Amino acid sequence: MMNIETNKIMGAVFGSLLFVVGVNVIAGGLFSPHKPAVPGYDLPAPEEGAAADAGAAAPAEPLPVLLASADVAKGQASAKKCASCHTFEEGGPNKVGPNLHGVVGRPLASHAGFNYSGALKGKGGEWNYEALNAFIQNPKQAVPGTIMAFAGIAQAKERADLIAYLKSVSPSAPAFPEASAAAAPAAAPAAPAAGGAPAAPAGGAPAAGGAPAAPAAPAAPAAQ
Questions:
Q1: In angstroms, rounded to a whole number, what is the distance separating the alpha carbons of residues 76 and 167?
Q2: What residue stretches are annotated with the Cytochrome c domain (predicted)?
């Protein structure tokens, strides 16, 4: 009796296994995945010229061009980022940083009563527009060793606006540099002579056909 029951159980187990295997085989035949020849993802091709446009970084505008269109009011708003450490009015007190009234054009580390870092004292020079732009962009890179904790302003237009505001509170500030010279394109190379004829060889080289060139006339003496 036990053998019959055992056989029934074993038969049921084997039958179930055969059913599962059969279902897997049939499903694999119906839904077999398509395997590409080369593994990877099928990505859409970029539009023509898009890769070149994305790779080419826009050239930065020269500082004189940015200063020519700078907005003093926007610069004053940006200066609020500095108000916790600096004052801007004439005769204003030093705080964590020195008073910045008249900063444009004055020597570095020269405001009376403020204890500057050794790095800034040893830098030398004056706060011209290029120096201010570099320092406002990244103080620690412009003056390694400075104790100024400000991270800097990355946007060139915002820096130009802030510099314009600093100029407005600096009575002795020099004028902005000319924007026209910075924005002028490079001169084009000289066009070849009409007809594409090559320039005459220098140094009295022989003319075509092997005939020697005529000697050059002596130069006239310079005016005394």
A1: 11
A2: 70-170
